[in-house]
Amino acid sequence: MRLHRLDLTAFGPFGDAQSVDFDDLSAAGLFLLHGPTGAGKTSVLDAVCYALYGSVPGARQAVQGQGLTLRSDHAAPGTRTEVTLELTVSGRRLEITRQPPHERLKKRGTGTTVEKAQTWLREYDAVGAVWKDLSRSHQEIGEEITQLLGMSREQFCQVVLLPQGDFARFLRADAEARGRLLGRLFDTRRFAEVEKRLAERRREAEARVREGDAELVADAHRMQQAAGGAMELPELQPGEPGLAEAVTAAAAVARSTAREQLTIAHCRLAAAESAQAGAERALTDVRELHRLQSRFAEARDRAVRLEERADAHREDRARMERGRKAEAVAPALELRESAESDHRRAARAEARARALVRDAVDHGRPGGLADAGAAGLAAAARRAAEELGGLDSARRAERRLTELQAERTELDRQERSDTDVLQEAEAWLAGWEETRTGLLGAVEVAQEAATRAERLAVQREPARRRLAAARRRDRLAGETDEAHRQVLALTELAQQARATWLEVKERRLDGIAAELAARLSAGEPCAVCGAVDHPAPARKDAGHVGRETEDRALAAVQQADGERADAEERRGLLQRELAAAEGEAGDTPTAQLASAADEVEQEYARARNGASALHAAQERLRQAERERDRRVSAQQEAAVRAAARVARRDALDSERGSLEAELTQARGAAGTVSARAAELERRVALLTEAADAARSAEDTAQRLKDADARLADAAFRAGFDTPQAAADALLDAGAHRELQRRLDARQSEEAAVRAVLAETDTAAAAQQPPADLASAQGAAAAAARRLRDAASARDEAARRCAELDRLSARAAEGVRRLAPLREEYDRVARMAGLTAGTSADNERKMRLEAYVLAARLEQVAAAATARLRQMSAGRYTLVHSDDRAGRGRSGLGLHVVDAWTGRERDTATLSGGETFFASLALALGLADVVTDEAGGVRLDTLFIDEGFGSLDDQTLDEVLDVLDSLRERDRSVGIVSHVADLRRRVHAQLEVVKGRSGSQVRQRGRAVPPGP
């Protein structure tokens, strides 16, 4: 990497534009960067770091995390902070321009707004002699620069910008502090992750082993509970050795005891079953004797009860006989009751009809038509009907008169309506011109709004597209950052998978002899050496890795590479989409575009709202014109109808006079002809109903008399003295069924009693002593209870055996399943202790990361010694020491060997000047090692910061000779120092001058490279 040019604008202490020509300064290979304190020497180095990585070194980055404080306080408000660096790296000439976030005044309104940071990357095309743009993405440019340099920002600041104070502290630091610095430089986080992962695996394996032991102990407790407390549990905790063997032995003892108890329970159950069968047979015999004796006693009791109810039985038989005789009289009784009912109904109807005639016809006078016979009532009804028939003509005249009055009323209503129509039409037509003018004006306003809406519609879509592109730009920026983080994570996972695969492959190759030995057969030649005798073939050890394991590791590598490639492809797609969105949306903030789009939308909405009234205004105009035509036509039609009504009113008045004369004669005393007709109709109906009721009452009286005669004759023939006696003897259906049921039940009961008393075995049982059923039942219940107890004991013993067998099998399976876990835990715990430095096998108590860093420190010490010997005139040599310091861990010690005394001592004993050139040698050696570690990227430009003031003249000359020797490899070294003697010794200089308006840089004393 070689720096060519650095341009600064409003950066740090530099208020205006400044330029540094590194090609001019680096011509002699050694140049001096000097200036008063606070002028900005370090800011020049910060600008180089910021251009490459977008951030400044060390603690200054934490202060300036947002980039806003990078801006110079001396800069003009309109000047934007900018850093441009031109350099050559890996054969490519690049130009990087970065602008941090910039706070400026708003273009509209008051206040300020912050513009986003900007980055440009260009590459010089030597063929076309032009600069070509490569990218404007922060993320892409950062990845490109980091990949080309092969170093992170921290490594760059330690390798290119050599901070002597840091290395002086490194020389005097303890092992822990050195480890932190070396860890950052050489990125040994993966080894720390290995330690962490092994510790986690140890904890996980230990947890699984404890979990398995806990399950085993739980099964042991279950077996103890199933064994009824006869099992003794081992006094061991989960995780302690020997727990599995103790639980297995205790389970075997419990199973043996349970099987002995099961055999005893089987014997007791057989004896109880035999005793219970004998008790059941004795109980059956006693129950049969008790049943027969009870049956005989019950039959005797029933015979006594039958004899006691003999009189009631004879009375039931006599009542049944009288009921059968009375059934012959039943038809006559029913006929007489029907005739009596009909006569009572007819008499009540006649009384009601005569009462209505007395009230409505006779008007309460005695001796009128209400007391007449059926013939007189019928004659009066005929006379009223004849008078009613003579009123038909008068009814028609009355209806016609009503129609004439309704028509005259309708003519009056029409006249009033036409008058209202004429008045309303005249009033409406009087304001027609004014109404028409207002409607035409509304149509013109709506047409103008429609024209404005069409013009705004053309502006809406571009504003919407640009706003959508800006929002897409903001969203894609976040997604692109997330995709980049995912690529980094997947890349790290892929590297870890590849490292795992290589380790597995190496382990397989170490044990390949065992695989080949497994294929050997007696008498067959060996595929490696060709011998047919195989006296000592290799054996597979416990950690042997097979081909399947290697294939799985390789598949994991391929899968991780595929996922990383997919993530990179998605990141590239997002970056292209982001570039397209930025090209369409530009640099305008999304809020500003949204405000402009909303303003266009609001104007368009107002125009559309006004234009939407065009159709309604036109329709109102058309409706108003139609309304005018309608009102003019209605005015003319109303005049024609008024002339026609005059003639019709005269005709109606003439016809009404003749009809009123006719009706006066027909009404008589009634108010209307209809009232007279209704009166006659009611009179006819009442008289007719009364005549019919009188004739019906006479007929039903005659039928009742005939029914009485026939009933008396039927009762005499059936043997009853009176019809009432026959009616009392008659049984209804329910009483007849109940009486027949009692007679049949008596007959059945007598037959059943005789049958039981005639049974031979029942009579014989009655002669024996009474059966003792309670004693037999008690004996049988006791035998059944003993049988149940024996069966329960047998079932409990069988269940205990089955449960112990099941739990023992489960415990044995748990022991088998736990064995590989215990082996894995022992192996992982051994590895974790070894890498953590806590194992007894690790004699120096070195952690894995410290071991790797110790190897790196050896390389750094060897590279630094080559320059330290020259600076110290061969006196000092740096060596690495892995001795333990006090009670700490060993591995990162650093000593200096003094050739004058031959003694090895700690670097903290060096003087101030010795510490300076020792730290300088260490810094240069570290730069060489980190450069090789980063892939061998050539570093053609280095900077060394301060420390030269502590050297005497001779040592200073030796140090400068060493630095000058770097030029032999075409390197240029910039020295940052206050030492005045260096200004005399180093001709190429970059001076930083500070002033009230900001600092400035001056290049002077251009060196001429030596000739051949």
What does the model show?
- The chain has 1012 residues and is α+β, with helices and mostly antiparallel strands.
- Helix 9 (243-308) crosses helix 21 (733-757), helix 9 (243-308) packs across helix 22 (760-767) and helix 11 runs antiparallel to helix 19 (673-717).
- The longest helix has 79 residues, at 432-510.
Topology:
Layout: E1 2-11, E2 14-21, H1 22-25, E3 30-34, H2 41-53, H3 58-63, E4 82-89, E5 92-99, E6 102-105, E7 112-115, E8 118-125, E9 130-135, H4 138-149, H5 153-159, E10 161-163, H6 164-172, H7 175-186, H8 189-226, H9 243-308, H10 310-326, H11 330-360, H12 374-389, H13 392-430, H14 432-510, H15 512-518, H16 547-585, H17 590-611, H18 613-667, H19 673-717, H20 723-729, H21 733-757, H22 760-767, H23 773-836, H24 848-871, E11 876-881, E12 893-898, E13 903-906, H25 912-933, E14 941-945, H26 953-965, E15 972-976, H27 980-985, E16 988-993, E17 1000-1004
Parallel strand pairs: 3-15, 3-16, 10-14, 14-15
Antiparallel strand pairs: 1-2, 1-4, 4-5, 5-8, 6-7, 8-9, 11-12, 12-13, 16-17
Helix pairs in contact: 6-25, 7-24, 8-9, 8-23, 9-21, 9-22, 9-23, 10-21, 11-19, 12-19, 13-18, 14-16, 14-17, 14-18, 24-25
